[in-house]
TrEMBL record, chain A:
This is Carbohydrate ABC transporter membrane protein 1, CUT1 family. Belongs to the binding-protein-dependent transport system permease family. GO terms for cellular component: plasma membrane. It is found in: Cell membrane. GO terms for biological process: transmembrane transport. Its main location: membrane. Keywords: Cell membrane, Membrane, Transmembrane, Transmembrane helix, Transport. It is a multi-pass membrane protein.
Automatic annotation (TrEMBL), chain B:
It comes from the Bacteria. InterPro entries: MetI-like, MetI-like_sf. Gene3D superfamilies: MetI-like. The keyword Cell membrane applies. This is Carbohydrate ABC transporter membrane protein 2, CUT1 family. Signal peptide: none annotated. GO terms for cellular component: plasma membrane. It is found in: Cell membrane. It comes from Alkalibacterium pelagium. Residues 87-277 form the ABC transmembrane type-1 domain. It is a multi-pass membrane protein. The chain crosses the membrane at residues 26-48, 91-110, 122-146, 158-177, 198-223, 255-275. Its main location: membrane.
Length: 295, 292
C-alpha cells in the first residue's frame, strides 16, 4: 500500500537529484539540441540555421572527420589492450601469491594519480632529447623516437601512457576472480582439464559480468579522451592534429572559438555514437555474458 | 620387482609435478616483481627529478638519482606560479564538493532504497540512464546558465552541482543501503523515530564503509577534475591545481624540475587519503564491478 505521505517523503528525499536532473541534465540537453540548429556564438541572439551545422560537419569540416578517426583509433587500441592486460594482471595476482596486498597496492597506485600529473610525468619520460625512454632505447642500440612530438607515434604513446592506469580495472577483476567458486576448479581437475581449458571454460565465463561492465565503461571513457591529449600537446591537438580527439575538438569549437551551435551539434553526435556503440556491444557481447542468478 | 618399478615411476612423476609447480611459482613471482618495478619507476622518476637541479634534470644520458639533492625546485614552485593559491582553491573545491556530494547522494540514495512511492521506478530508470550520458552533451548549455548567473571565473560552478547529488554515487549507496536488514529500521520506527532521523542517525553510521568509499572517490574526482576548471576558471588566481600545474610549461621553456615538484605536491594528499582509507577503499571499488 502506497500512502500519499510516503510518496511525499520520497520526493523530499530525492529532491536535490530531481532538481539537478531537470536543470543541469534534461533542460540543458534540450537546450543543446536547440543550439545545434543555430549559429549561437555566445553573443547576441542566435539565428536558426536548420541542419547547417550538421551538414558543415559532414561535408566541409576535415577536422571533424580527423578528430573522429583519432578517437576511434585510440579507443580501438586502448580499450582492448587495457582490458586484456588488466585482466591478466588480476589473474596473476589471484594465484595465491604471498604479499598479494602489496602487489595490488603497487599496481593500483598509478590510477589515483591525477591525469594532468600523469601526462606531465610521461612527457618528461618521453622527452626526445633527454627523456629516459630514449636513453634506454639508445643504451641498447635501438632506434629512438620523437614519441609525443611524432605524428605517427603520438596516439600509440598516449595508449602506452593509459596502460599505467590499468590497476583501476585490475582490482575490479580481482574481486570478480575471488568470487569464482573453488568447487568448479576441483571438478575440472577431476576430469583432467588443462590450465588453459580451465581459464577459458571456467574463469572467463564466471567473471564475464565484470569484464562486460569494464568493457562498457572503458569504451564510454575512451570516446571522451581529452585531458591527456590537451596536456601533452599544450592545448593544440598537435602534431598536425594527430592528437585532436573528438571531445578536444568539441572543446575548441565550443569554448575557444565560441561556436556554441556547432559545438552542441558535435555533442549530440557524440551522444549518438555512445548510444550506438554501447547498444551494439549490449546486443552482441552482452548476450554472451553469464549471469548466475536473475538478480 | 614390477611393483617397485611402478612405484618408482609414480614417485618420479610426483616429483616432476612438484618441480613444475615450483618453477611456475618462481616464474609468477619474477613476473610480478618485474612488473612492479615498471609500475613504480615513473613515481621514482617524478620524485627524483623534483630533487634534481636544472642542469641535471635535463642531462643526457639521464641518471636515476640526483647527484646533488636539491630542494630548490620546491621553492621555485611557489615563485614561478601562485601555487599556494592553486592549492587553496583545490582544497576549497574538493572539500566543499565532497561534502555536498556525500550529503546529497546519501540522502537521495536512501529515498531510492527505502521509501516506496509512485513514480520511483521511473525516476530510478532516469538516474541509471544519466550514467551513460557523456557530460559533454550538457557542457555548453550549463556553461551558458552559469555565465547568465554571473558565476563564470569563480569556484561556484565547480561546487554547487555537487549538492544536487551524483548519479553514480547515488547508485552505489542505494545498493549498499538495500543490504541493511529492514528490521533495524522497523524497530526504530516503533521507538518513535521519523524517517529523516533513521537516515541520519541509523543508516549513515551503519554504512561507514560505503560512505568512506564515496568520500574518497569523490574527493579524488574533484581534485583531479581538469575539464570543468579549464572551462570555468579564467583568472590565474582562481585556478585549481589541475590546470595550475600546466603553467610550468611556458611558451619557450618547460620548468621540468619545478613541474615534477609541483606534481609531487599535488599527489601527496591523494596518497595520504589512499593509505588511510585503503581497506575500505579497495573493497568499495571492487564492488563497483559487481553491478551485473
Amino acid at each position: 500500500m502506497l500512502s500519499k505521505k510516503r510518496s511525499k517523503l520520497f520526493y523530499l528525499f530525492v529532491f536535490p537529484w530531481i532538481f539537478g536532473f531537470l536543470f543541469l541534465t534534461a533542460g540543458p540537453m534540450l537546450y543543446s539540441l536547440y543550439l545545434s540548429f543555430t549559429n549561437s556564438s555566445g553573443f547576441g541572439t542566435p539565428d536558426w540555421v536548420g541542419l547547417d551545422n550538421y551538414s558543415r560537419m559532414f561535408n566541409q569540416d576535415p577536422l571533424f572527420w580527423k578528430s573522429l578517426g583519432n578517437t576511434f583509433f585510440y579507443t580501438a587500441l586502448s580499450v582492448p589492450l587495457s582490458l586484456v592486460t588488466g585482466y591478466l594482471l588480476a589473474v596473476l595476482l589471484n594465484t595465491k601469491v604471498k604479499f598479494m596486498g602489496v602487489f595490488r597496492t603497487i599496481f593500483y597506485l598509478p590510477s589515483i594519480v591525477p591525469t594532468v600529473a600523469t601526462s606531465l610525468l610521461w612527457m618528461l619520460i618521453f622527452q626526445p632529447n633527454f627523456g629516459i625512454a630514449n636513453a634506454i632505447l639508445d643504451f641498447f642500440g635501438l632506434p629512438t623516437s620523437l614519441w609525443l612530438l611524432s605524428e605517427q607515434m603520438v596516439k600509440p604513446t598516449l595508449v602506452i601512457m593509459s596502460l599505467w592506469g590499468i590497476g583501476g580495472g585490475m582490482v575490479i577483476y580481482l574481486a570478480g576472480l575471488q568470487e569464482v567458486p573453488k568447487s568448479l576448479y576441483e571438478a575440472a581437475d577431476m576430469d583432467g582439464a588443462s590450465t588453459w581449458r580451465k581459464f577459458f571454460n571456467i574463469t572467463v565465463p564466471m567473471t564475464s559480468p565484470v569484464i562486460f561492465f569494464q568493457l562498457i565503461m572503458g569504451l564510454i571513457g575512451a570516446l571522451q579522451v581529452f585531458t591527456q591529449a590537451y596536456v601533452v600537446s599544450s592545448g593544440s591537438g598537435g602534431p598536425n592534429y594527430q592528437s585532436l580527439f573528438f571531445v578536444f575538438y568539441l572543446y575548441q569549437q565550443g569554448f575557444r572559438y565560441f561556436n556554441q551551435g556547432y559545438g552542441s551539434a558535435m555533442a549530440w553526435i557524440l551522444f549518438f555514437l555512445v548510444l550506438i556503440l554501447t547498444g551494439f556491444i549490449f546486443n552482441s557481447v552482452g548476450k554472451k555474458v553469464y549471469y548466475e542468478s536473475g538478480d | 620387482m614390477e611393483l617397485t618399478g611402478e612405484q618408482k615411476s609414480i614417485q618420479k612423476k610426483y616429483k616432476s609435478i612438484e618441480k613444475e609447480i615450483k618453477v611456475k611459482r618462481i616464474l609468477i613471482y619474477l613476473a610480478l616483481i618485474s612488473l612492479s618495478i615498471v609500475f613504480i619507476f615513473p613515481f621514482l622518476w617524478m620524485l627524483f627529478t623534483a630533487f634534481k637541479p636544472e642542469n641535471e634534470a635535463m642531462a643526457f644520458p639521464p641518471r636515476l638519482l640526483p647527484r646533488v639533492w636539491d630542494l630548490e625546485n620546491f621553492g621555485e614552485v611557489f615563485q614561478i606560479v601562485p601555487f599556494a593559491t592553486f592549492y587553496k582553491n583545490s582544497i576549497i573545491v574538493a572539500g566543499l564538493g565532497t561534502l555536498g556530494t556525500v550529503l546529497s547522494s546519501s540522502l537521495v540514495a536512501y529515498g531510492f532504497a527505502r521509501i516506496k512511492a509512485t513514480g520511483r521506478g521511473v525516476w530510478f530508470a532516469l538516474l541509471m540512464s544519466t550514467l551513460m550520458l557523456p557530460p559533454q552533451v550538457t557542457m555548453i548549455p550549463v556553461y551558458i546558465i552559469w555565465s547568465r548567473l554571473g558565476f563564470v571565473d569563480s569556484l561556484v560552478p565547480l561546487i554547487v552541482p555537487a549538492f544536487l547529488g551524483n548519479s553514480y554515487y547515488i547508485f552505489l549507496l542505494r545498493q549498499f543501503f538495500r543490504t541493511i536488514p529492514k528490521e533495524v529500521e522497523e524497530s526504530a520506527y516503533l521507538d518513535g523515530a521519523n524517517t529523516f532521523q533513521i537516515y541520519w542517525k541509523l543508516i549513515l553510521p551503519m554504512s561507514r564503509a560505503a560512505i568512506i568509499t564515496v568520500t574518497l572517490l569523490s574527493f579524488m574526482g574533484f581534485w583531479n577534475d581538469f575539464m570543468n576548471p579549464l572551462i570555468y576558471l579564467h583568472s590565474v588566481e582562481n585556478y585549481t591545481l589541475a590546470i595550475g600545474v600546466m603553467q610550468f610549461q611556458g611558451a619557450l621553456t618547460v620548468y621540468w624540475g619545478p613541474m615534477m615538484a609541483a606534481s609531487t605536491l599535488m599527489l601527496i594528499p591523494l596518497v595520504i587519503i589512499f593509505f588511510t582509507g585503503q581497506k575500505h577503499f579497495v573493497e568499495g571499488i571492487a564492488t563497483q564491478g559487481n553491478k551485473g
